């Protein structure tokens, strides 16, 4: 049996948590962590030992605002080819979705990487915009073609990339929900290292564990958080040491730092968060869609942040579970989503719907 899914080891970890007698409400910020919790039926096991784990703003498509998606739709409806990840296509806004724009004849294409988009731009004469979405995990890959150079003149990037740390701090400062510890995303830490998280433990007296993506990673991270609480410690520990190095990945971080700079940015469900967005550096202005297509983007109509009745903002702040939204499974399903949390495979509502019965 795959060693990170071993049932006997899981039982031992859960027993050790129970023995400690620590009750905790933890948050993670990663759709893959949520998928692991729900897919492998960990939630009832955690409940049994007094541990709650909730998903916060960890789905990149979900935290992308309706305004950003409306910008992409507006570009598409004004003759610009849009290349975006599949999860972006069906996110509804009050002016429709990218999929609706495509249905109406706009040139909207699904890509799996920025390289796909660059290749498409080479093969056409009209303008093409790649919509870059994601945290530190994906931002370096968006930066690679810019750093390599020799891009076609008709290619540009609309960056929706975001830094995770400022949002974690915003969440802590908002103080809406009790958070006894953070389960930090291992794939972000692969790039950033563990150092950027130290600050939260020191300032907010917050235990944190960098966590991998298998069931035993999740349970072990809960154990490590409980142990910190039990021993009165608040520090960053690395459960995912088989992959994450404390110093991170210098090469990926340099690409990210050489490509983007931090700007104040709105997140869905949050106010504007200081220095949380990744904008293209001025030296890449000719590839920055917000500059290249400034005139078209002025035409983007005002859009509501959420469809009426959608509670994605509360889900993203960890205030409610998806099943507590009155629309869950009724007005809102993956086939008729009211918000991005039901669209994206990393969205809390989508995961809860796909694996309902395991919760
Ligand atoms: Fe929004 Fe649907 Fe999730 Fe409710 S179930 S929060 S309506 S996406």
TrEMBL record:
Single biological process term from Gene Ontology: protein maturation
InterPro entries in the record: Hyd_form_HypD (IPR002780), HypD_1 (IPR042243), HypD_2_sf (IPR042244)
Entry GO MF terms: 4 iron, 4 sulfur cluster binding; carbon monoxide binding; iron ion binding
Name by which UniProt lists this protein: [NiFe] hydrogenase metallocenter assembly protein HypD
Protein family: Belongs to the HypD family.
Organism annotation: Methanomethylophilus alvi (strain Mx1201)
Keywords: Iron, Metal-binding
Domain of life: Archaea
Pfam families assigned to the protein according to its UniProt record, in alphabetical order: HypD
């Amino acid at each position: 049996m795959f060693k990170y899914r071993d049932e006997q080891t899981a039982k031992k970890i859960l027993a050790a948590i129970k023995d400690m007698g620590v009750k905790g409400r933890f948050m993670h910020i990663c759709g893959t962590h949520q998928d692991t919790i729900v897919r492998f039926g960990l939630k009832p096991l955690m409940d049994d030992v007094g541990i709650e784990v909730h998903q916060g703003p960890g789905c990149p498509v979900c935290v992308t605002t309706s305004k950003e998606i409306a910008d992409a739709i507006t570009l598409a409806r004004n003759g610009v080819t849009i290349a975006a990840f599949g999860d972006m296509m069906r996110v509804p806004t009050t002016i429709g979705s990218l999929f609706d724009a495509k249905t109406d004849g706009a040139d909207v294409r699904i890509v799996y990487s920025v390289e796909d988009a660059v290749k498409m731009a080479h093969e056409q004469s009209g303008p093409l915009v790649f919509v870059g979405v994601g945290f530190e995990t994906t931002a370096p890959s968006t930066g690679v073609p810019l750093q390599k150079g020799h891009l076609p003149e008709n290619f540009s990037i609309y960056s929706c990339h975001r830094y995770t740390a400022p949002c974690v701090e915003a969440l802590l400062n908002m103080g809406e929900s009790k958070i006894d510890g953070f389960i930090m995303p291992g794939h972000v830490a692969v790039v950033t290292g563990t150092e950027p998280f130290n600050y939260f433990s020191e300032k907010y007296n917050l235990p944190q564990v960098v966590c991998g993506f298998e069931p035993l990673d999740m349970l072990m991270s809960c154990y490590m958080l409980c142990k910190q609480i039990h021993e009165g410690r608040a520090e960053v520990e690395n459960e995912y040491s088989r992959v994450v190095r404390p110093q991170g990945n210098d090469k990926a971080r340099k690409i990210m730092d050489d490509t983007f700079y931090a700007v104040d940015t709105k997140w869905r469900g949050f106010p504007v968060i200081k220095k949380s967005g990744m904008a293209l550096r001025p030296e890449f202005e000719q590839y920055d869609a917000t500059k290249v297509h400034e005139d078209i983007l002025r035409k983007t109509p005002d859009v509501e942040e959420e469809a009426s009745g959608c509670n994605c903002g509360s889900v993203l702040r960890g205030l409610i579970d998806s099943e507590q939204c009155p629309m869950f499974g009724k007005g809102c399903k993956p086939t008729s989503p009211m918000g991005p949390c039901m669209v994206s495979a990393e969205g809390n509502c989508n995961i809860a719907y796909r694996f309902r019965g395991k919760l």
